[in-house]
Amino acid sequence: MKIHLLAAALAVFLPTAQKAQSAAIHMDGVFTDWTPGIASFTDNTTPATGIDLLDMQVSNDDQYLYIRLAVGSEVDLQDDLVPQTIRLYIDGDNNASTGTAVQTGYGAEVQVKFETRTVTEYFGPSSNVSWNTLDLVPLPTVTSDTFEIAISRNALPDGNNTLFTSSTIKLLFRETDGGDAMPNAGTTFSYTFDNTPVTPIIPITVPKAQAAQVRVTAWNVLADGITNATLQGNFQRMLTALSPDIIGFSECVTSTAAQVKTRLDAWMPNGGTGWYVVKDDFDMVIASRWPIIQTWPGLSRQFAALIDLPSTHATDLLFTAAHLNCCNADATRQNQCDEFVQFVQDAKSLGGSVTVPNNTPIVYAGDLNSVGSAQQLTTLSTGDIQNNANYGPDGPMDWDGTPFAHADCPQINARMAYSWRSNSSAYPSGLLDHIYFSDAAAALAKSFTLRTAVIPATTLSALGLLSDDASAASDHFPITADLNVPLVEINVTLRAMLEGPFDQQTGLMQDSLRVKGLIPLTEPYADLGYTQSNGVGGETTTSAVLNVSGNNAIVDWVRVELRTSGTPSVVYAARNCLIQRDGDVVDVDGASPVHFNLPANSYHVVLRHRTHLGVMTAATQALGPVPSTIDLTLSSTTTYGTDATKSFGGLQMLWTGNAQRDSTLRYTGATNDRDPILLRIGGTLPTATAAGYLQEDVNLDGLAKYTGTYNDRDPILINIGGTVPTNTRVEQLP
User: What local confidence, expressed as pLDDT, does residue 327 receive?
Assistant: First the structure.
């Protein structure tokens, strides 16, 4: 007898059947969001033949009914690559006397025969209808032992009658080859829709987060759609909204490279000679904003090109556009994947037809027609060649010996990840388009599918899109990934002294803030209102770094800025980092030079601290990957302005006393630096103190003090001259 979690006998249900079951299910062929608490049914019997139905889970949101199905062996749910006859029956009105009497207790209004992709409705005389009357989405589209299925709650199977007319429905799976059923005869499985709202979806924003990211788009344009005169508006709006840097088009059979270039130059002007566009000998076109150094058109249904990224990037990029064979050509697709693995192994090794420098980012994108065996996707990811006799030995795909990463591409305003849909096709919506990449050489910032039909009107308007643009242009939706490709780097070795914590007896700065556990793990400058530029802000360090003692102990957070010769008053880039007792300024790991993802160039270097006046080099410094040493403690290091640093015992150091955190030290008058100290300790009793990580603690000993030894008021008076309290000292930054 099969075990039923929700019913012990026909129409006898446990109370758990009515508990809240709504969930935010992401239809992507990945099952981590199917948690144990979701309504489920387990089948504990095993058929002698055929496919064993193991278990199912059921959930819903306001738009879809979701079903997760697990079976005993890998099958292709939408085909008979592995013989299977899995059927789904839905009793949408919870009435056994209507529909087709498929099993005792069930009157099914709909049957889905997955291997033939046939949907049959039983509202009157039975008829076969299109899958799109259910808005049916089954994923993955390749072989698996687990699948998730979405069916619209507003489905009209015959075009007139609503499928779900009852809040409680019954579901039944059958596998007719072996006779397995879930549940067995004599038992029913009921599910009650739960209208509890699920967590709202967080839309993916279309524009790149950072201009330096490399945006890659792949798009099957369906029968030369990109040069079809009637579709020019759709393609222009879509591509303009995406604004990709590198594009892999497929199904450009008659479209020429010149025709595609003409359109891209008009739609997305690129300056200079415009877009760089090349075509293989069949249907693939690669377009790039940057020069294309070399192409390899010899791969079957795959077209590779080496892209010359701008000089701001540390590498070029090896991009392959793919359009693998369709439908039942499973063996051919596998050979094509094997061939690409061979190509990558060649590219990563010296000699052969292609060699690229170590850690060159590799991107593989396009319409992979991923139906049939999942092995093809496994091969592309892991390098597991199936035909070693023809394509050589297996090998890891990424530079670090790991598999390629897969860029999941959800639709930007829906919990759906399918990339292909054609309401006139016998096949339901599927995930056919993919992006694989070497994540050891490039980091994924975001990835998405642009399906305009699910985007709100206000977002469409902001992007210059129409709701039918994607479906009108092609049956494939464009998939996009933004990659952080390493930039040419700058490393700065900087040394300086902060006057406040300087100990003249040791010639080092004291680390009282660290010893007292007051230094925060996250930099303080973003919250203090310092200008954020080029991605600065939010840098963090670790407790291990702050536990280091001795000369390399951390004193506090500091801020390094780079400014150009043309606009020295503007922060071009900044990095929040750390300063050690001996004056070394180090990155957040507590040891490395300060790192910037910027091209080598000459910059003014600025050092700032929250309680000290900042200082800038008078001349620009040539900076590049090899650390350049700039020692602000030396009088020979000229600084911008007059008396930008304080000279003490042969050392130059930053002036302390900036309790107000502005550009001027003041002892009296408006916005002076003395009053904040008095206010911090309470405002009435001058001998009181306040402990903590405080702006008014100008000597960085962990205490704000107004009077007594090591107080924070006297340094202000001394640094404005010591005799005339109305004097000021102005920070020497442009």
Answer: 92
Is residue 111 a part of any domain in this protein? yes
Residue 597 pLDDT: 82
Q: Mark whether 243 and 296 lie in a shared domain.
A: yes
Domain closes at, from 140, 157, 192: 192
The count of structural domains within the chain is: 3
Domain-embedded: residue 104: yes
Instruction: Clarify whether residues 573 and 443 are in a common domain.
Output: no
Domain that holds residue 387: 214-484
Give, in degrees to the nearest 5, the angle at Cα 173 between 167 and 178: 165
Under 8 Å between Cβ of 451 and 463: no
Indicate if the pLDDT at residue 625 is higher than 90.
no
From the DSSP assignment, how many helices (H) and strands (E) are in the chain?
11, 45
Copy the structure tokens of residue 33. 């969001």
Residues in the chain: 734
pLDDT tens column, 362-405: 999 999 999 999 999 999 999 999 999 999 999 999 999 999 99
35 burial type by CB count under 10 A (0-12 exposed, 13-18 middle, 19+ buried): exposed
> Is residue 1 one of the residues assigned to a domain?
no
For residues 515 and 460, state if they share a domain: no
| Domain assignment present for 201 | no
Mean pLDDT for all residues in the chain: 94
CATH code where residue 258 lies: 3.60.10.10
Residue 263: its H or E element: helix 257-267
In order, the DSSP letters of 324-385 are PPPTT-HHHHHHHHHHHHHHHHHHTSSSSS----TT--EEEEEE----B-THHHHHHHH---
Burial annotation 307-339 (CB, 10 A radius, 16+ → b, else e): bebeeebbbbbbbbbbbbbeeebbeebbbbbbb
- Average of per-residue pLDDT across 502-524: 97
Q: What pLDDT digit, counting tens, does each position of 301-336 carry?
A: 999 999 999 988 889 999 999 999 999 999 999 999
CA within 13 Å, CB half, 691: 5
